[in-house]
């Protein structure tokens, strides 16, 4: 964990969040600035700053993030009509918190291109 990371503080319960899911490896919570009716952030409990920092030892963890996104999409009822998952990497892509997080977005029709 990184003592200065807002997401690490959320995982530790130092900053409140609306939890959507938690297990041994992951924590998921509702985004405080939602960009869709359903907007959940899925984060590993292991601090990984960007997707460029993912190592082979993290591959299973990344897979678990997507499996959790599938589970949460079904729980939220957005699986049938569709949903989007997004990782942003670095500032030009919109990464504001340097702790990887998978955005789960749904509940409305998504446009393309996204940016």
Please give a handful of descriptors for the protein shown.
22% strand; 21% helix; single chain; alpha+beta; 115 residues
Secondary structure: helix percent: 10-25%
What kind of oligomer do you see? single chain
Shape: globular
Strand tally: 5
> Can you count the helices?
2
Structural class: alpha+beta
Main pleated-sheet profile:
5 strands, antiparallel
Are there runs of 5+ residues with pLDDT below 50, and where? none
End-to-end Cα distance: 31 Å
Strands in their spatial order, largest beta sheet? 1-2-3-5-4
* Average pLDDT rating: 96
Q: Secondary-structure element sequence? A: HEEEHEE
What Rg is obtained from the alpha carbons, in whole angstroms? 14 Å
Strand content: 15-25%
Characterize the structure shown.
The chain is of the alpha+beta class and 115 residues long. The protein is built from two helices and five strands. The protein has helices spanning 6-11, 59-76, and strands at residues 19-22, 26-30, 38-44, 83-86, 102-106.
Summarize it.
This protein is an alpha+beta fold and 115 residues long. 21% of the residues lie in helices and 22% in strands.
Secondary structure elements and their pairing?
Elements: H1 6-11, E1 19-22, E2 26-30, E3 38-44, H2 59-76, E4 83-86, E5 102-106
Antiparallel strand pairs: 1-2, 2-3, 3-5, 4-5
